[in-house]
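Record type: monomer structure entry
Structure origin: computed from sequence
Chain ID: A
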Amino acid sequence: MSFREKYARLGERYEVLEKPLDRFFCPLRKKAAAFVRGRALEVGVGVGKMLHYYPQGIELHAVDAVPEMVEIAKRKAKELGLNARFYVMDAERLEFPDESFDTVISSFVFCTVPDPERAMEEIHRVLKPGGRAIFLEHTKSDCRLLNWLFLKPLDLLLGWLLGDNTLRETHELVRRYFEVEHEESHYRGVVRLIVARKSEDVGKTFKGTDG
């Protein structure tokens, strides 16, 4: 069963299952959203956890690979009175022209996408020069003991349940494509907030990659 099918089966129950983590993650979501400006794209909107925190005055577009999640996010945006456009779309194949957005943000997405390298290429492609890329992501911990005693068994469970891989080194992947301006490590590196810019000197060889 693909990750799309697994998340589709969960539907609104996903938000209930994730509720215990909100006390840890919601303050970080709020902090990440504060960096969003202009015409913005959220990659992997899920059930719309980030929608509560976006600043006023932005033009928000949001995509997710799971249609059921997109419908939940749409309803949430309507309840919040938020003007946003939603699309069913893979992170690895964003159907937007090059250099379309001032900001691209992802929140706990790169643990799920099947091809994180391709997804990062796409984010780089659709972001305007000098635009801001924001990542709030699960990553491998700085502590080896924590990785082996706790995170590895948890990762096996989440992989079976959802198709997730929470031990990816997404922070290192970001550095290959973007110029990192700000990085925060939380819970011994299990979660990282990274704010980066699209620079002419970093990741330029990937610009416009389409296959």
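Annotation 1: Residues 3-201 form a domain with the Rossmann fold fold (CATH 3.40.50.150).
Annotation 2: The two ends are 26 Å apart (CA to CA).
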